[in-house]
Amino acid sequence: MTHKIWIINQFANTPDVPGHIRQYELGQFLVQQGCQVNVFASDYNLTQRQYLKLKFPQLWHLESLDDLQWNWLYAASYQVNNWRRYLNMLSFCLTLLIIGLFKPKPDLIIGSSPQLLAAFTAWILAKLRGARFYFEVRDLWPQVLIELGGKSPNSLLVRFLARIEHLLYQKSDRVIVLAAGLVDYVTKHGAVQVHWLPNGPDIEQFKLEIPVEVAKADYQIDPKRICLMYTGAHGTANSLDTIVEAARLLDQSHPQTFQILLVGDGPEKSQLIEQASGIECLEFRPAIPKGEMPKLLKAADGLILTLKDIPLFHYGVSPNKLYDAYAAGKPVIVAVGGMVNQEVDKYRLGFTAEPEDAKGLAEAMRQLAQIPLSERQAMGQRGQNLIRSTYSRTKVAAKLWQLIQEDLCVRISY
After folding, report:
1. H-run or E-run covering 60
2. Quick check: helix, strand or coil at residue 73?
3. Is 115's pLDDT higher than 90?
4. What is the number of alpha carbons within 13 Å of residue 136 lying toward its C-beta?
5. pLDDT surpasses 80 at 412
6. Closest C-alpha among 100, 104, 108, 93 to residue 174
7. What average pLDDT does this structure show over 349-365?
8. pTM
9. How does the average pLDDT of the chain come out, rounded?
10. Are 48 and 15 spatial neighbours (Cβ–Cβ below 8 Å)?
């Protein structure tokens, strides 16, 4: 019997646009196992701040991607994180509920955060349609609103979202966490069947035959400089002002040595560009499609990851961009703290600094520049080994498929 599976994540992307493609890759894997898979995502792309497929007054567009059915849903547009952001979330949930009630019945629905209301709507659809439900925890809401957004734990919004969060932990057939540090947290809050299925890349996509010199030339990167890159969202959580100030220090102490690229887009980008005025070694570049990322990373000498200094990020993150760096065979420079820094230090994958410490980050960059090329390559090789053993998207997808078989085959036997 063919299993019918829905995967719901408002911010899911396909490889031709910027952003994470976890749902796309998991969906493709499940299609290859003979499942009928529908992915539901917002057509309004947060990175590009525009609609990709829909034309007014369309609510829904169905696209077939090698037998993976991709449902682009309407959500209200917004440019900055004000009241329109909440309208964006609520409108997506409403569209999802309308479309979900009229599509053929699924056997399993996987609802993914960080959009907690979308995951809750997915759970409601599972109850109404008589399907099993998995809750995938990408980001820990509403905790991130407290620690990063400054919301009071006693505010009406936080208490409302906390009730939804606990309900999803308790009522889901399985809870999937992307960060290993979240297993204890969700268990203490009522989850019973908890599984760690981290982010991770498709290793095959990073097996490029392009020489580094060619990749550097294609992206206008000076081969005489050490090229360090950050790729991804330019938002408050990403603490890119730390990279800007570290670049300012390197400009003064090591002129003409570094070429530091910030590749991506987001609400903080214009402010960061203004902050970086006069820094010679720092460049801002636009976001690129996810499918192009392996070639861009090939041109780097090292990859940078920074986050704000909040307790949640010390145990509750599974950064796609970090695992892409491992897969690309590049050393990393991380200023995250907690489990991310510990992993880099334990496996000798690069250099670490404390979060929001521009001086420490600049020193980590200098350390990377000073080691021989052979050691940078050895760091990259160790990262690739870690991907193969732990973070391979194929291994993660196979574990998910095993859980699905256990649940749906038991249901069919009844």
Report:
1. strand 60-65
2. strand
3. no
4. 26
5. no
6. 108
7. 97
8. 0.90
9. 92
10. no
